[in-house]
Write a structure and sequence with these properties.
The chain is globular. It is an all-alpha fold. The chain is built from 20 helices and two strands. Helix 4 runs antiparallel to helix 11 (about 210-235). It has a single domain, classed as Up-down Bundle (Growth Hormone, Chain: A), CATH 1.20.1250. Helix content is about 75%, strand content about 0%. The protein has helices at about 5-10, 25-30, 35-65, 65-80, 90-105, 105-115, 120-135, 140-155, 160-170, 175-200, 210-235, 250-265, 275-280, 285-315, 320-325, 330-350, 350-370, 375-400, 405-430, 440-475; strands at about 85, 90. It is a multi-pass membrane protein. Its main location: membrane.
Length: about 500
Amino acid sequence: MAQDAEKHQVNMMEDVEKPDLTSSSQDDILAEFSPQEQRKLIHRIDRRLVVTVGVLYCISLMDRTNLSAANIAGMEKELGLALPFGGVSRYSVVTLVFFTTYVVFQPPSTIIVRKLGPRMHLSSITTAWGAIMIGMGFVHHWQDLAGLRVILGILEAGFFPSCVYLLSTWYTRYDVGKRYSVFYILGSLASACAGILAYGLMQLGGHEGLGGWRWIFIIEGTLTCALGIGSYWLLVDFPDKAHQSWKFLTEREAKFIIARVDQDRGDAQAEPFSAVKFFRAGLDIKIWGYAMIFFNTTTVTYALAYFLPIILSQNMGFSVGASQCLVAPPYALAAIVMYGTGWVGDKYRIRGPIICFNMLLCLIGLPIMGFHKNSGVRYFGVFLVTAGANSNVPAAMAYQANNIRGQWKRAFCSATLVGFGGFGGIAGSLVFRKQDAPEYHPGLYACIACCLLTLLIVASTTLVFLRQNKRAARGEIELEGDNDGRNNFRYTY
């Protein structure tokens, strides 16, 4: 994954001085490592960092979205989730209450993870939400299920933004796209396998007097607890503290990573926390543009995650077992498209065109999925929508990561980005309404509108980036606090 490490070392776009790490000392540290040593080190970081957080995200996404599988496995009938409540079904209430706390508790999480460290923070919340998942297998009233989902939202709120922030601190701007893709690919594989796993766990129905849908929560929750405990020894800290994390890196290697990131964008070392610095980032309208792109994307991805088995069953006429298993192939295609677009984005240093390509896949697939008369053709549309929407998650993360500087601005941006993703989850849990079954046309129109809005935002930010880069090249302005006199930072579009 890091085959271009040597190229990135000599072709960095910025070279920003830090008070305790001068440009000459950066060059000296980087020169200590041969290209072969650099590749070996980056590969070691990939295996330890990207794979670990990716596996944990795999479990996170599976735990967050297994409601649809449990719903058609008997939970809807046993808990009366099809009944209305406040104008929507109880099932929609159970799905959306998760996001009320998931959104609210995300901004503090990027502050907490910097203070506690990723190992303690991420392993603790993962183990805790695994215990909540086990509890969901024993509820007898839908209100209890909704309450546990609220608590689950509090715990999972700290996970995704912390991972996005952590990965962005380890890699240069044109290495991070592939890493985000691999991180999210593992999540997509979870979505692909979740239906098949759920179908297998359903067969335990009747054991110990428990329904099959309950075993989905109990077994997956137990697995989550085990991985959460093990992750304490597998996760690593931020680069400036990595040499203290169970001998993962030597101090010399940690200095190399810091120098490499500092040469790229000048924000590798942590700054003292200041609420003013953290919240001042909110004055940058571009951050809200990135967040809105993520909202539009996650509205579609969560709608698919929560309702695809139901749509396959009700709209396309597949059996319950087939609906569970047919979820997997579209997510397998999404994984291929996701890594391919991530590789292209890093190699050619582009971000906006990748997002537009993904949205065009959705705009082609949604009408096919919703309006064609043949169920097989509609299922082909599911492939396009799933690939485009899910591939856009790491693409949007790389887009914002490439166009901001500063530790606390990066932390704020990660929180707002994923927070708006939570709002997208609320929207995604509501777009396919029970009263619109089996065609679900209003939900399809909403998803199409989200894709079109994303194209408009990317076009607008691209025009801004082009204009600002030209002004910076003429020496009229300095971008993203690039006030060290070099004026080398440029936006990526």
